[in-house]
Predict the structure.
Amino acid sequence: MKEIELLAPGGDIDSIKAAILAGANAVYCGLDKFNARNRAANISFSDLNGILKLAHQNNCKVFLTLNIIIVENEIRAIISLLNKLVNTSIDGIIIQDLGMFYLLSTFFKSLKIHASTQLTTHNKGQINFLSKLNATQINLSRELNINEISDLTNIAHQNNILAEVFVHGSNCISFSGLCYISSVHSGNSGNRGRCSQPCRDQYLKTDAGKDFPLNLKDNSAYFDLKEIAEVGVDSIKIEGRIKKFHYVYTIVDAWRKQVQTYYEGNKLIVDNRNLYKVFNRDFSNAFLKGEIDRNMFIDNPRDHSAQHRSDMVGSVSDEEIEIAKKELYDEKTDIINFVKSKIDHLSIEKAPLMINVSGKLGTPLKINIETPDKSFFLLSEINLEQATTETLNHKILSKRLSSLNETEYLIEDINLENLQPDLFLSFNELSSLKKRLLFVLNGSRETIDPIEVPKINKQNFDKITPSLSVLISSKEDVYLSEETSAKIYYQLPNGMKNECSDLIELFQQNKKLIAWFPAVLIGEDYTAAIEFLQKTKLRNIVTNNTGIAFEAFEREVSWIAGPFLNIVNSFSLINLKENFNCKGAFISNEINKVQIKSIKKPDNFDLYYSIYHPIVQMTSRQCLFHQVIGCEKSKIEESCIKDCEKYSSITNLKENTSIIEKSKGNYHHIYNDENFLNTEIVSDIQNMFSGFLIDLRKIVTQTQISVDKLSQIIMFEELLKGNADSDIKIKQIIYPTTNSQYKKGI
């Protein structure tokens, strides 16, 4: 039986060492750029080869996180980094950005691709989508239950993809990749690794008496390893790249012992006290069990360790809790000292490389290499000549062989005592020798020359008169499709299985409607969405879910990528067009004017942008009303998604208000208190967008609208025609609004 992989976090060098010491099978870590844990210390590229050497000596893989969305002006730097990574022994690259998928699957095929949790992979179609992009391992959404994980693991294996599941650490209340609350409030995008964790903020006390209404307990499936292993999961992942080394060691050590106990005797450790010795917010496995309830919340984002210890011994007084804190502090100090003493002996220093160079006129150049674990020599294929200009000397050889320092080795000395003076060897022959040296040093792995990724030239487009499209979600607004020339998109619900028949009938009776698929479609809801796609025989759709995108591609349905696919660069567009026959895409509303302008669209491809909409801050599978206004049900039931319709708001201590909304057939959403309105882009960026969207769904925020929907459509159409007064009129009838994302960017 293949043993499950234990995948550990490494936010800095000491944490990586601690994970290796504790017995992790693999560690994931980020560089100081381009990764989704910007607040972690991370590592420099110069550290990477030493880390790889240490890890591989201890049978531990290393996966590098480049899992953020990449804006256009970073593409060259990313390509330069990938050209370095292909010549390392890195075991995998964890990514989110669709442009990165294109670059890796097209130009850097030797690097294994892992799909980040930021892609919130939760249905069969998404796995097929990622398979087409050469993903080798996929981190499944942490909101899934064990049956859903089982189904998707089978699909992954059918595509020769490994399935990875989070089993321990912080829980996000939002589906990953679909949380914009930090971006909206502060410009710190979670999709850029800069999340300011507003879900952990204190809010004004809610009607339910809670101060931290969005704060979830940590995830822990410590007692569920047997079920996870039995459904075929390949890798279990521990969260914690901003945690310190003693935390990483403690948690990885506990999980390693649990894994060993299971595989040695088909039983589990039933004591998880060690998990409570380091930072935690108490634990819940409710997502995994499919029991999404109010007990997942904890009204305190700080460390729960002392409270847990007090609870275990029945202590209740402040004095007893202080004693528990002191005991934990002493234990923590002991753990820190123990782990530190061990990891200090683990070195990421590169192995020293001694180079002895010898040769005489008319003979081959001989290079002897000595490392701590091997020695070998190579001869040039061309004989040495008398120098006329450039002489072989220490400076020349140091320069020509400097790339050896980009391996797991570092040149300690180049000895020329046995090299006759005033000799010459051509640049090409020295380069050939260097390649052969690298081949041996890199374990018989060929060195890959720098790959030139073709530049995408800015195109000169003819004048474009953008069209208007309108998003609705209510049958009472369907009449708009007959009253205006604007395209009418109809938002489909997350709970498709409950409404599939009615929606099929609606679209069959209203041929002008264009389906707008949501970002999250799980299990039977995804199956129902495919049934809807099949029976309506739609010719055009918009989708925010790559699973539906894949099905549209397979069925030759014309499709547009929605704004929640987080498109921010040109290579993402090329990927969608070339690999999935996509006809157009919405550019993400997270990026600013300068970042948008730099994007180059492919030929025969349309770009779209939403200029007016309620701002979704997050989408959650959890009930957001338990902690806010209370709910008579203790857990989410089938009927909750289908029938529940509620509204409330929360305000943090910085006086930022967010709207909590649950509509029938959908998951819970949090919206910004003010709608997004960006009329400036129409004149700022001309001849780029084929269409602009306005979202007229009935979502109540603090933005007031003083005219009916048809009048709004007419006014926005006038804006697109260039009517000078329309901008002023729109801002008079729709207020207050914000376009801070367009100003700040990411």
Notes: The CA atoms of residues 339 and 442 lie 31 Å apart.
